Structures are given as structure tokens and as C-alpha cells.
Amino acid sequence: MSAEFQSIDDQIKASYQSASQVETQARQLEARIAKIDGAKRYLPSRRYGQPIDIAKIRSNLTLTSLIAQDSAELAHFCGIHPGIRHRMDEEKEARALAAQALQMRTEALRQQNQQRQQQVQQRSQLSPWQRGYGSV
Fold first, then answer.
1. Where is this region: Disordered (predicted)?
2. Euclidean distance between CA atoms 29 and 37, whole angstroms
């Protein structure tokens, strides 16, 4: 009988150690992700002894992008496609170029408006007979 109790005791101990190892690994991963600015609040909840659900991490776009921006290694560990980082960099560059183009267009329009305003001001200083028929 003592061998039977020993085996159940061994099973209980092994189960506890397994849960402790899983918990330790999960806490380390949570701590690593929590180091990323703003990522901690997006971590999926879990029960003690349960691993972090990587699928839930991947399904959260905000958390996925935060991880991808922070670390390619962590992104790879979590199964996040490393191309996300490259795509995000490309999108950021495209936004910067669009903003620059908009700024250049705005400056060109500002100069046109300034020229038109000067023309109107010059025409207003002319006498009515010099302005022509349309401005009477």
C-alpha cells in the first residue's frame, strides 16, 4: 500500500512542479511584455499554473504591434510575423512623405494667395479708369 501512496504522492509532486514551471515561465514572459510601454494592460488574463495564451496575444492587434515594434526576437517567440515591423516602418515612411507633400502644397497655395492678395491690393490703389471696365 505504501508504494501506491508513494506513486500518487510522486504524481502530485510532479503535477505541482509542472504547474510551478509553467507559472514561472508565464510570469517571466508577462514581465518581459510588461516592459514594453503600454503593453501590460493588453496582456490576456490567465489562471495560476496556466501558460499565456499566445493565440490571444496574436489576436490583439495593439499588443501585436507593440511587441513587433519593441523586439523582433520577442515577436518571433510569440509567433508574430516579423514582416509586421517592416510594414509598419514602410507605413510610417509613407505617412511622413505624405505629410511632407501636404506641407509643400500648403506652402505653394500660401504663396499663391499672397501673390493674389498683392495683386488685388495693387489694383485697388489704381484709379477706376485704370482698373478697367470689370472693376467698376
1. 108-136
2. 15
Please say if the pLDDT value at position 129 is more than 80.
Answer: no
What single string gives the DSSP state of each residue in 80-91? Answer: --THHHHHHHHH
Sequence-separated (6 or more) residues with CB below 8 Å from residue 36: 66, 67, 70, 71
Contact 43, 26 (CB under 8 A): no
Residues 44-67 have pLDDT tens digits of 898 888 888 989 988 888 898 889
Residue for grid cell 496556466: 50
Amino acid letter for position 25: Q
Q: What is the largest CA-CA distance in the chain?
A: 123
What is the distance between the alpha carbons of residues 57 and 78, in angstroms, rounded to a whole number?
A: 8
Residue 72 neighbours by CB distance under 10 Å: 15
Question: Which segments of 1-136 are extended strands (E)?
Answer: none
